[in-house]
Each structure stands twice: as structure tokens, then as C-alpha cells.
Design goal:
By secondary structure, the chain is of the alpha/beta class. It has helices at residues 17-21, 23-37, 62-72, 104-107, 109-115, 126-135, 182-187, 198-207, 209-216, 248-257, 276-289, 297-300, 324-338, and strands at 49-54, 78-82, 95-96, 120-122, 140-144, 156-162, 191-195, 220-227, 238-243, 261-267, 292-296, 312-314, 316-320. The strands form two sheets. Strands 3-4-2-5-1-6-7-8-13 form a nine-stranded mixed beta sheet, with helices on both faces. Strands 10-9-11-12 form a four-stranded parallel beta sheet, with helices on both faces. α8 crosses α9 (209-216).
Amino acid sequence: MMQAPGFWWTPPNRPALAARLLSPASAVWAYGAGFRALGARPHRPGVPTICVGNLTAGGAGKTPMAAYLIERLAAHQPHVVLKGHGGRLGRGAPHRVAPEDDGPADVGDEALLHACLAPTWVARDRAAGLRAAEAAGAGVLLLDDGMQNPHLDPHLRIAMIDAGHGFGNGRLMPAGPLREPVTSGLARVDLAVLVGPAKARAACRGAWPVLDEMHGDGRLMEAALRPLETGLPLDGAPVIAFAGIGRPEKFFETLRAMGADLQLVEAFPDHHVYADAVLDRLLRRARAVGALVVTTEKDAVRLPPRFRAEVMALPVRLTPEDAAPLDHLLTELWTTDAS
């Protein structure tokens, strides 16, 4: 996958020339989305189903949010269903992930992370994946992505928003990062989760007043991604860091906040497959300066086995500032389902 173009993240009131030139293509995108929805018969499973998605392309915290929900809903036998980006399985029948046998080339990196926490299915046809998980005994279904899929009708929709980027220039792909318009997209979600440092969250709410409106309606939850206590000696330590996620700079900022002395950072496209030569180069550089080599959990599962002992993974977890908006929705969901 390619990195998102920089002009996507320019202020909405100062669109780049490339964004203006691509506006006709955005109209085609909108038409295509509407055409795909024609005649669709959305599938609603018989057990509570929560879709964690976003309005923009790229990473916005969907995987950490799904992990948070898995922990919150552990007593309800959660199963995760996702497309399995980068994997070869799930193209036909849905495939239940076996972490001991499947690799990232089989099911993708996110599926391997989820499968360590809960039963996980990869399926190109996500409605079929939901049916398979329900038949296997799921008490609650978590969809990692799929908010714009017209064939799905979840009970709850949660939109993740990266506070550092917000909705970019506010334009539809390819002129901007949006998969659907901001106003109509947020109108149909049950909860928006604004993720990032407090300062970035405040700036994002200032730039997008619709988020303050959602806060007033009790449909906005703010959260941060915080590293787990791992015992890694990062404070003051020389570190070489690399990441191939939606926004690698967020990972590098986290390391700096932990006191790491970043000697070198390298950003790769999301879901990047690492060549041995690249990893050998990073390890040689680290040995030369006495540095630790650190990456994300998602990147770590994509590393060839011989490198895993030499590269440290830093896990992060989503931490809500106030979980009351989500608590209310979950209580309502179980009450409605029970009745």
C-alpha cells in the first residue's frame, strides 16, 4: 500500500492545487459508492454486532479500539471479523485464524493481533464472515472496518478519528482522505472516538465544530493511545525505530514522549512487507551506535522469524478519558438485545 499524499492533510480552507484538480474524480467516487449501495440487502446478525470503522483512509485507531472492546466484552464471547488485508485466506469461505499456524501472508497483520485476544475470522465477504462467527457461538461480533459496506447492518457503528489529522482537507478520495462526507457520515454513527494527545484533540474539535455538536449529544468519546508497561529501558536509551502503519509518526512521537533518544526513524507504507536486506541494515546501524531497535506490535508480527528476537515491539492500548458515552451505548445494546 502507498503512503497517503501530503495534500490530503492541508486545511480545508486552503486546498492544494492537486486536490482541486482531482475534485471531478471525487465526484466519480461518490457516484460509485451510491451505485454500490443500489439493491444491497444489508445483513444484520442475530447477535449484537459492533462495527469499528472510520470516515478516512488509513489508520485512525480501529485495531486498538477493537482490542479495547474485546477486553470490555470478554464475558459475552466476542468474535472479530475483518477482511484480512494482505492475506490470501478468506477469499472464498471465511477462515478462522489459527495464530499458531497462520502468518501475515495468510491472514494479514491485524487478524493475528486480534486472534491473540479472541476468536477471529478473515473474510472478503464480511457478511459471510459474520454468519460463520455467529454459527461458531459468538455472543457479540466485532467488525474491524466495513463502515462503508452497504451489505452490513451492525447494531452499533463507532467511527474512529485521528486527532492529529482530523478529516484532512475535507474532500472525498482521491482529492482528499474521506471515504464519505463528514456530515452525513457522522450523522449515521452511534459514537465517534477522537484519539490523540489532549492538545491535538482540542485543536481537532476547534477545526471541526460537528465534533462539539456530537459531544453535546453524548456521541463523542475522547481517548489516548498509551504504551503498556513492558520494562523496556527506553528513557534516555538510543533507539532506532521503524513502523509501517497508517501514521508512523504517531509511533515515533510516543517513543519520544517515553524519553527515547531516537537515532534514526524510518516510516514505511501501511502493512509493509519487510525485506531481509532492510532489516539487516537497521540492525547493523543499531549495533554500530549501541541502539535498541523498536517497532509496533503490528509490524512485529510481519517480521521474518529470525529477526523477531532482535527487534523489540512496543504495545499500546486505547485509554478513554471518559468511557460514559460508550458505557451508555453498550448498556442500551444489551437491554435491547435481551428484550
